[in-house]
Structures are given as structure tokens and as C-alpha cells.
# Entry
Amino acid sequence: MIDWHSLLFWPDQVALSVLALAILVMLFLYAARRPMHGVIHSTCHLVTQSTRFLSRWLFLVAENMRLRNQSVLLSHSQENAATVIEREFERVGNIIRKDMHEFPALQRKLTEEVTRIEEDYRKCGEVPPPPPEWVDAIESVSNLKSGGDVPRKLLEDIGKSIQKIHDKIVSEYRRAYEDRHKILKGMQPSWRSVDKAISEMDKKMLTLQGNAKQIDGHMAKFEGMRAKDAKTENALTSSAFVQLAISALVMVIAMGGAFINYKLIALPMSEMVGASDYIGDNLKTSDVAALVIILMEASMGLFLLESLRITQLFPKIASMDDRMRHRLMLASLIFLIILAAIESSLALMRDMLISDKASLMRDLASVAPAAEDGWFTRIPMAGQMIMGFVLPFALAFVAIPLESTVHSLRTVIGVLLVQTLRGAAFLIRFIGVLFKRIAKVLELVYDIPIVIPVMIEGWVVASRSRPPEIAPATPERPAKKGSAS
# Structure
């Protein structure tokens, strides 16, 4: 161990030795002041420039990544919007082809009915003129001279005949009006059918109007995507986060169903494959076989939905012709049904194994078997078989949330990476600014131990730079006039 007394100039006088050592260190630090200031300034400047360059590079990478993410997001959204618009147009076309082709016949029928009703109405309003021969007869009788019995009797007979004819004509008119009213009453079902048809056409037109509004909304979104609007981009990004959350929730539910499915077939698979067969040290072959069956069911469901063009994870399948696509759809459906039947049989085998195990335990325990209740005891077996047949078809639909997860996860990861890069760039830039400001602080900290020589240097420099004081000039007195002579 080194004795610190050996470092002293005068071991007997510690205070004087420490003072001398401090003066030497101060003189050394003062002599190295300018080089050390340069080192501090150069180092901090190097760190500042490096961090500024790195920060700019990270911001540039983040911006390029944002643009790529924007292009991918907008292109995918444009494809979805174009598909939705195309389906809306197809739906409108189907409505027009299915419902609106009856419009010409309906219009012709309506025109005929209106024409017939107008004719009947016009006939109902016609009143025939009075018979002209009776007018002449009455005029000739009125010209006869009064006062005789003949004219009086003649007028009475004419009045009676006119009354009879009047009653007959009135009855005929009433009968005619009744017939016309019956005709008009018979037109009520036609009017009701026409009114019903017009109401249905009105409803169909309202449906078309609603579809047109939806198409207008989708077209507005599509135009915003084509224009690369910031508002549309933010809305699509938020929608991607929401879709990822929903898809993740559905995937978790599907994983729960897959776990139940796995537990349902793991035990019978151990009897088929072998319970003592292992892959590696701890992985059972029966567990791997059960997992392979579940994955095959999910794969067949994925191919089935791809062939139905519900999902588009594999563009090669969507680009097939209809004949090959229908063949792939039938093959996937047949394989899925076969796997579902196999799983249902495995569920039945599981129930039988559990029953055999329970019987063996009762035999070993010498316990009398419980009385069976007939069909009531077969309900769990039937439930397991139905569950084993239904679960593969339920797992087939996992392709829909899987597609949504794949597309939205790319956008979400891109946004998170962009924000991470921007945060790192900001932090590095802040560190560079901090080093730029800390250089002056380090110089001042370095000057603290040598404050006395620095003060002395400041005084000397100040005294040298001070201008010399000039003595004030003494004014000369003017000479007297007498002394000049």
C-alpha cells in the first residue's frame, strides 16, 4: 500500500505540502485551460452534429415509412371501397332487373283501367234529350181554342200519357245508373290492385334511393382516398385500430373454441396414435396429431371461404376461373365434412373411453354399478358428438377475422414504427441540444478550480487594454503689453 506521506514535498509540514501541491495543480490546470476548453467544445460539437444528423435521418426514415404505409393503406382501402361500390351497383342492377321489368305492363294496365273508368264515367253523365214529337204535339194542342170538352179531354189524355212515359223513363234512368254504379263498384278491386302495385313500386324506388345515397357516400370516400386527404387517412387509420381490436377479440374467441376442440379429441387420439409415444422429451404424439387435425379443419375452412370469394388472402384462388374455383370449393367442403365426421366419431370414442375407465374404477373399488336411466345417460354422448361435428365448421369462419387482422396489423405496426422513430429522433435531437448547451457549463466547471489565476488574468488583460491617462494641459497666461518693450 502506498503511503500518502511519500507524495508530500515536506512530510513534516503537511499543510505547506498540500498548499504547494494545490498551487502546482492549479498552475497546470491554468496552463491547460485553452486546450481543455477546445477539447470540451470539440467533443460537444461532435456529439451535437452527430445527433443532429442521426435525428434528421430518423425523421427521414419515419417520413418514408409513413408514405409507404399511407400508400398501402389507401390502396387497400380503395380496393375495398371499389368492391363495395361494385356490389352496390350489382344490387341496384338486380333490383332493376328483378322488380322494375314489370313496370311497362303495369303502366299499360293502369292506362287501360283509367281509360275504361273515364268512358264509364262519361256514359254515366250523359242525359238524352226529350222526345221532339211530344213537344210538337203539345205546341199544336196549346194553339187550340179553349172552351170545349175535346181539348180538355185531349190534354188530360196527353198528361196521363206523359206521366206514364215520365215514370218509365225515370225507372229506366235509375236502372241505367244502378248498372253504371255496379260497373264502378266492380272497378274498386282494380283500383286497389293498381294502388297496391303503385305502393310497391314506390317502396322499390325508395330502396333504390337509399342505395343511391349509399353509393354516393362510398364514392365520396373513394374520392377522398384518391385525393389522399389527411382526414380520410386519419379515419382509415382509426378504423384499422378498431378492426384490429375487434378481429383480435374474435380470434381469442376462436382460440377458445379450438382449445375445447383440442380437449375433445386429445384423449381418443392417444388411443389411436399411442399414449406412450413422444416427439422429443415432453411433446406427445397424440397432442400433435390432435393439433394437426384442428389446423387442417381451419385450413379447409380458409380454402372454402377463399373459393367463395369471401376472403382474399390468396389472390391465386380468386383469379381462378369459375369451374376450377367451384371444384376447389367442393373439395374443401367435402374434406371439411369428412374431418367433422372424424371428430364426431372421436368424441364418441372419448365418451366410451371415459365410461370404460369409470367401470374399471368401480370394479377395482368393488362398488356396484349404478342403475342406468336409458336415454338420459346418452345426452352427454350426443352433445359431444354434435359439438365435435359443429366445431370444425365454426372454426372454418376464423379466416374472416384472420384476414382483417392481417390487413389491419400491417397498418397498426407501420403507425407504431413511425411514431417510435419520431420519438427516438426527437430524443436524440434533444440530447444534441443538451450537449450544445452543456459545453459552456463544462467550461465554467473547469474554470472553478482555477478561478484565482483566471481572475488575475482578467485583471492583467483589463489593465493592458485600459487607455493611458493624459495629464490636463496648463493654459498659458497672456503676456503684458509693457513687457514687450
DSSP finds 14 helices and two strands in the chain. Residues 93-226 form one domain. The longest helix spans residues 33-99.
